[in-house]
Amino acid sequence: MYCESQFKKGETMKKWSNLFLAFILSLSMALFAGVGSVFADGTVPPASGGANPQWVWVNPQVPATIIPASEITTAPPAWQQLLSTGLDITGPATICYPSRGAQFGWTGQIRLLFEGKWIPITTKFEWVPDSEGVLMACANARYAGIYALFGYWQPVE
Description:
This protein has one helix at 2-33; strands at residues 56-58, 64-67, 81-82, 86-89, 93-98, 106-114, 117-120, 124-128, 134-141, 145-153. By secondary structure, it is α+β, with helices and mostly antiparallel strands. It has two domains: 1-36; 56-153, no CATH class.
């Protein structure tokens, strides 16, 4: 009798442990079933610039000061956002800002702050110094003042 009751206890314990194990496995599968693949649908724009882009200007006689983006408080046009720091130059120069994002749907325009408004100036995207260099937004800044690169993202089709 002793052996028979121990055997029945063991069988009962085995059934409960199997049931518990099945419950844990079912719970695990239910929790991980909600984790699915993420598909990019093009609604979130990729980053517009590199890790630490810097302005470049061609005219060594013209001093310039970099203005942190956080200090640029004048709003751009509604459809554009600030893509660079500001550049305060004291005279005419060719100015360029790295714009790697132009390869991925970012459109940009360098603008001059004039009487509280950002005035667009002709901006060209070119590889500097050549096709193995850096893609940059460049403009011929004819006046002293504060310049910045603004832009928007449009998916590449």
